Amino acid sequence: MVWTTRSLLTLGVALPLAACSDDGGRLDSASATQPTGNPTVNPSTTASTTDTPTSTGTSTDAGTVGDSDSTGTTDGVDSITTLPTSTTTTIGSTTDGPDTTSTGEGPCPEDQIECDGNTAKVCDGMGGFKSETPCAMACAEPLGCVVCVPGSTQCVGQVSQVCLPDGSGWEDQLECDPVQGLACDPGSGQCLGACADLGLSYIGCDYYPTALQQLDGFMGNPYAVGVANTTASPASITVTRGANTVVMDTVPANSVKIIQLPWVSELSTGTGPTVHVADGAYRLRSTQPVTVYQFNPLNADVTNDASLLLPVNTWTGNYLVASWPFWNGFGYGGFYAVTARYDNTTVTLKAPKGGTPTQAGGGVDGQGNGVVVLNEGDVLQVASASGGDETGAIVTADKPVQVFGGHECTQVPIGITACDHLEESMFPIEALAKEYIVVPPSQAGGNAEKAVIVRIIASEANTTLTFDPDQPVAKVLANAGDFVEIPTTVAKFVVSADKKILVAEYMVGQDAGYGTSDPAMVLAVPTAQFRSNYLMYAQPGWSANFVDILAPTGASVQVDGAAVGNFTAIGATGFSLAHVPLNNGTGGSHSVTADQKVGISVYGVLNYGSYWYPGGLDLDVIPQ
Description:
Blueprint lengths: L4 H5 L8 E3 L6 E3 L11 E2 L18 H4 L48 E4 L2 E5 L5 E6 L3 E3 L3 E3 L6 E4 L2 E5 L6 E6 L7 E3 L4 E3 L11 E4 L15 E7 L5 E7 L2 E8 L3 E7 L3 H4 L6 E3 L5 E14 L8 E4 L7 E5 L13 E7 L4 E6 L7 E2 L10 E5 L4 E6 L9 E17 L9 E6 L7 E6 L13 E7 L4 E6 L7 E2 L5 E7 L3 E15 L13 E3 L7 E7 L6 E9 L4 E3 L2 E2 L4 E2 L5 E7 L7 E18 L2 E6 L10
Antiparallel strand pairs: 1-2, 3-9, 4-5, 5-6, 7-8, 9-10, 10-11, 12-13, 14-20, 15-18, 15-20, 16-17, 16-20, 19-27, 20-21, 22-28, 23-27, 23-28, 24-26, 24-28, 25-27, 28-29, 30-35, 31-34, 31-35, 32-33, 32-35, 35-36, 37-43, 38-42, 38-43, 39-40, 39-43, 41-42, 43-44
């Protein structure tokens, strides 16, 4: 895919133009090339001008992926898309002098430019024209002669280009990647296919699974991704690493398939240092919109966790990191990892509190600060050192990136056995909210709740927090990246802030006295980004798997087709919570459907082991 300057300017991120390579893979940062020959332009003449297309198409969640959560149209700052939609620009009729454009208010003003076909005419203010200039390529009002009509589109090979707002030339809009089943239509100048016009949910066609740091002795347990296809058509899956094809597979309609991938030893083994691994991530592409989760490792064991992956079209260049402190007991550290989609991506790392002990390497210093250039598929994994905690690090990039946070293996809280792996894919700052509902998970027997520790991280300076019911922590965060930590609790509460915040929950270790299972990590999802339909995977080897459902009180919810009836109201929030055990006899595939939008998290527990991940979210809804 090719990203444009305009698409991320709606997020306040100014990015240069990237041109597409001819291999459908790496994209170099360069100006778009002027097409040769006679490419199709839609249209070539106009009498009215348009800006670069904004996202005015309806989300494909409802029609393409079988989800009823379409929120209609999006535009301007209400969208975090990095790719414009494939809506064809509508161009007005041509005009012929002032008599065809008259509004009854007299002749056109002096020096105003009007177009008569491909001729630019300059009004004299008296009903005539000062001059007429035949245009070599196109005429656009009020610009006059231009290279192309602003907002029009064309195909150059399999790249859809859009004309710049000033008509001075073309910029790459989208790579019509044949591996994703896309092709550029010469008639419209737009990409066509099931993976065109994707909405901004967690459902997509282009992902970068990244094998993160794990205990060396567990590499016999496979690293894997779960691919969920909610469409009515089979999805052809292609997984590559660099120039090499690793896996080709098919996920049948309305099903989930597990795809095992080789561990990436440069990222997964050892206990540091910070490393920059070229082509360290896999790239997973699909011909149908799918959901992807990664499991590190896959099979139930004592050091697992899982991550919801976000598709490339939802990535931005702004992230906060949630991690966990370095554990001196065995020398295991927290980490975060950055994956690049495009060549020559400049990533700037700002450590929490100006600096935290970090294992230097890969262009990052011993205090966790640095500026690093990554190419497509590269991974920078930043490892904490003794006394360090990467929580609150701020990652910015001049092109879209993916960020994970986690820990190789840690105790929660430190000093309570046993250690377990933590990881989660971070949500972009643009998608964060000012209010969340925080609830604990269930214990293995389902008769009591498992305690958590909660971290609330500020995205901006001078952030004020409010809790209902109140929680015994500081209420003002002075700087971006500062956080408060709510100690071991089973409380259910609402946290509100006057600026956007990131909320992370950490399941406590088994010896903390809250039943079977060890640490795992999950990010809270804002209620505005809930959905009415999910398809997810829970590995059936766990002693117990659960889906937790946050639903508006009175909502009708089904799990695997069975009605959920054990909801408990959460104070006066208007929401209720249900801990729903999952049937391990289904092979791991599960669904949640509801008549209103609900939020879910999925987790599994066993003796001294666990995993936990958010079931999904709609990023096209930007909480205010």
